[in-house]
Design goal:
Length: 119
């Protein structure tokens, strides 16, 4: 199953709705490329909505970490939204829950970022 990514700009945040599997192959490559392109376009507040992600393998986890690292190096923030139980448990087991900020609602993510930056 391919990974589908839909971008939407919400209150100064770029939300990426992911659907499918984040696994080794074109799926992880497309996610890395999308994040890279958004950073190049100046988007520094990224949110990955994982509500419709059915599976993440070890390469998928490393891709999430790589995306997080890339965003931080550019002075931005990457946060996770709507984790499934399986992905939540995976982050707990791997201790990545201490790295990522995880939220259950878009409103909570928006509050965590604070006011949108002035143009």
């Amino acid at each position: 199953m391919a990974l589908f990514i839909v971008e939407k700009l919400v209150s100064g945040m770029m939300v990426l709705d992911l659907r499918g599997r984040v696994v080794l192959g074109p799926e992880t490559e497309s996610l890395r490329e999308r994040v890279k392109r958004l950073l190049e376009a100046g988007h520094l507040r990224l949110v990955l909505n994982l509500e419709e992600v059915s599976y993440v393998d070890s390469v998928g986890l490393s891709t999430l970490v790589a995306c997080y690292t890339s965003v931080r190096k550019q002075g931005g923030e990457l946060k996770l939204l709507n984790l499934t139980k399986r992905i939540h448990d995976l982050l707990q087991i791997t201790k990545l829950s201490t790295v990522f900020e995880v939220y259950d609602t878009l409103e909570a993510v928006e509050r965590s970022f604070g006011p949108p930056p002035s143009p």
